[in-house]
Write a structure and sequence with these properties.
The chain is mostly helical. 58% of the residues lie in helices and 4% in strands. It contains 26 helices and 6 strands. Strands 2-1-3-5-4-6 form a 6-stranded mixed sheet, with no helix packed on it. Strand 1, helix 20 and strand 2 form a beta-alpha-beta unit. Helix 3 packs parallel to helix 7. The longest helix has 28 residues. It is elongated, with a radius of gyration of 29 Å. The model has no long low-confidence stretch (mean pLDDT 89).
């Protein structure tokens, strides 16, 4: 019931298909735009496509695979850290909590890289928490490299890991060099390659979503929404304060331990665990809040959700009796299972415009997208048709495979739109609409959107609503053959407009003519109607126009 494939995944699928077909890492042939942020995931999907697998099912299986690996990882980590606790044998808390965490399961089948990215973050966390040999620092650095090549925000965890190694290990210099070995030897060459290939310091999505501009208000709303839903994490500060109070009472009058003292404590100590958990959780949560969160509910919190649970598990098992540990663990699981569904009364979109997309984009939605793409392909047969679209139509675009496709709500796949100045803040990730003039310069025929007010440029393709950007007369006459396609034939519209000339001022006609030219006259030979408009718009030109 939770399985679905996110619309953004289909942008990755188009990149992967073009790569497999020898066009390079491009969304549109010949355009080097880094409209993805999941290079390693994209390469795996492309490999599956090369072997003949359908990318939709392959990405779902791949996500479940990394989901399963992550559960196994926390089975091992809990055993290693808490094997002396009698409660562990009965209740490996983190693993069971993740298995019933609704959104942790959702993103395992979303077609996105979330599950894989989360796995690499957890691997890094586990290695640093249990590090006792130099090779673990090297392996942790390798996992960080894989995380950063899966998603750029993996660099947050690299910074946190370096800080932790410098703060909590000895010898610091050698350990830090070991941690940075893989990023230096693998990630840096990869980064320089992608910079030379695409030409920008950051991926195109960084500019499209204005990640450099702080958006604390939206970020706080996003974080509050997650923690209101999974209020189970409210136990974390309560447990931490209780254990801190116990510690202060027990050690009253003793010297406060220094950082050097902490660096010498055993790797499985509560102090080390608490510091590493806090660094990973707080740093990444601040990053999420700073950039404004996301429009997909819970997605950005998935990588640190296992660490949140493990922190709770650590506080329970280290400092409480067996019976109390079991009771608290059961409470954690019950609260996780009975989360407070924030979307229950908001028709899938809460007031902060965050969406629970697994309910919105069902498998039935995917079937309709395939059928719609097949119909559109039959309508457009024999014509080169370029399409602009809003994100929700990414599925249809993938199956339709037009020669030029432009994501027009933010510019994820288009450098020009992505680098437009941000004028106002709104729904995160949907704040830069493509100018119509730019779409016309790209010879876009139609834009698929959610429907607009009645206008002469509206068009409906048997359920797909949109607008005509460039009225190509030969294409539109062909579309008139299909009774299921509804639009306004523009010559008839112009004739009705011309018939009303006597009621219109020259200024009104001049204003409308500018719009009609960019929509129709600049692309079609219709001098007779154009001359009528020019005469009305500027009577002084009447003697000089053709036909006089």
């Amino acid at each position: 019931a939770l399985s679905y494939v996110n619309d953004d995944a289909f942008i990755t699928f188009r990149y992967a298909r073009n790569f497999v077909h020898g066009l390079g890492l491009v969304y549109n042939a010949g355009e080097r735009v880094e409209g993805y942020t999941n290079f390693l995931w994209l390469m795996l999907v492309a490999g599956g496509m090369k072997l003949g697998f359908d990318p939709v099912m392959f990405s779902v299986v791949l996500g479940i695979f990394f989901y399963g690996l992550q559960l196994l990882l926390y089975v091992f980590l809990s055993w290693k850290m808490f094997r002396n606790s009698g409660a562990f044998l009965l209740l490996p808390l983190t693993v069971i909590a993740l298995a019933i965490h609704r959104d942790f399961n959702v993103y395992a089948t979303s077609g996105l890289e979330t599950s894989m990215f989360s796995f690499f973050v957890s691997c890094t966390f586990a290695l640093l928490l249990t590090v006792d040999k130099r090779w673990k620092f090297i392996l942790a650095g390798f996992c960080l490299t894989l995380a950063m090549m899966t998603r750029p925000d993996g660099v947050i965890f690299l910074a946190v890991s370096v800080f932790y190694v410098v703060l909590m290990t000895a010898p610091r210099f050698r350990n830090t060099l070991s941690l940075l070995l893989a990023p230096a030897l693998i990630f840096l060459p990869y980064w320089f390659w992608r910079f030379s290939y695409f030409g920008y310091f950051y991926p195109n999505t960084f500019y499209a979503k204005s990640v450099d501009a702080v958006y604390y208000v939206a970020g706080i709303r996003y974080a509050v929404l997650y923690f209101k839903t999974y209020y189970v994490f409210g136990l974390l500060p309560l447990l931490a304060l209780y254990i801190l109070w116990k510690h202060v009472r027990k050690n009253a009058g003793k010297r406060v331990p220094s950082v050097r003292d902490l660096a010498l404590v055993p790797t499985n100590s509560l102090a080390r665990t608490s510091i590493l958990c806090s660094l990973f959780i707080l740093a990444y949560t601040y990053f999420i809040i700073r950039i404004g969160g996301d429009f997909m509910f819970a997605r950005f919190f998935i990588p640190i959700t296992p660490i949140l649970y493990f922190f709770i598990e650590s506080l329970i098992y280290y400092q409480t009796a067996r019976s109390v540990a079991i009771t608290l663990s059961v409470l954690v699981l019950v609260l996780t299972q009975f989360r407070a569904d924030q979307f229950k009364y908001w028709n899938l979109v809460v007031p902060s415009r965050v969406v629970d997309e697994c309910q919105l984009y069902t498998w039935d939605h995917l079937s309709r997208a395939k059928e719609g793409a097949e119909k559109l392909a039959s309508y457009f047969k024999g014509f080169r048709v370029n399409i602009a679209f809003l994100g929700t139509f990414a599925r249809t675009i993938y199956y339709l495979d037009p020669p030029v496709a432009i994501e027009a709500e933010t510019g994820l796949t288009d450098a020009h739109i992505a680098h437009l100045p941000l004028t106002t803040r709104g729904r995160i990730g949907h704040e830069k609409a493509a100018p119509v003039a730019y779409l016309r310069s790209r010879h876009v025929n139609f834009i698929f959107d959610r429907g607009k007010n009645p206008s002469f440029d509206n068009i409906s393709f048997d359920g797909f609503n949109g607008r005509i950007i460039v009225y190509d007369d030969s294409l539109m006459k062909n579309l008139q053959k299909f009774p299921q396609i509804h639009f306004t034939p523009f010559q008839a519209y112009l004739d009705c407009y011309i018939a009303r000339f006597d009621t219109l001022s020259g200024q009104q006609v001049r204003s409308d003519l500018e719009q009609f030219k960019s929509y129709y006259f600049d692309y079609n030979a219709d001098s007779s109607r154009l001359n009528l408009f020019l005469r009305k718009a500027n009577p002084s030109l009447q003697r000089n126009l053709p036909g006089q």
